[in-house]
Amino acid sequence: MISYQIKPRPLEPHAKPIRDERYRKWVRTQPCAMLRCQRTDIEFAHTGSKGKGTSAKACDLDGIPLCVFHHRTGVAAYHRHAEAHWAYLHGVSLAEIRAGLRALYFGEREGT
Questions:
Q1: pLDDT in tens, 42-98
Q2: Is residue 4 part of a domain?
Q3: Rg of the Cα atoms in the chain
Q4: Is residue 1 assigned to a domain?
Q5: Under 8 Å between Cβ of 95 and 62
Q6: From CA 34, how far away is CA 39, in angstroms rounded?
Q7: Interatomic CA distance for residues 21 and 72, integer angstroms
Q8: How far apart are CA 33 and CA 51, in angstroms?
Q9: How far apart, in whole angstroms, are the C-alpha atoms of residue 73 and residue 102?
Q10: Counted domains in the chain
């Protein structure tokens, strides 16, 4: 019988998530990320590996605009489901939404 000894790797320091108040403010000016939603009570929803009520929020560049209903209060709100299940319920790709927002935001900034 061969035994293997696993050497623990040293812990890598975690970079602090990006904080960008201007980006958060801009995201809140966008329509709710849910198709056909006409609500105007837009909040900045942190998505990604951290977030959802934790003390360590995800990177601000992973945030998306959601109305209060789709973010916190509705039956199928983001805060009521695991991220992957929520995306499945709504038929959306959070990665595509985040990428589209970043492209729009940074494209607008380059033009100003």
A1: 999 999 765 455 556 788 999 999 999 999 999 999 999 999 999 999 999 999 999
A2: no
A3: 18
A4: no
A5: no
A6: 10
A7: 21
A8: 17
A9: 26
A10: 1
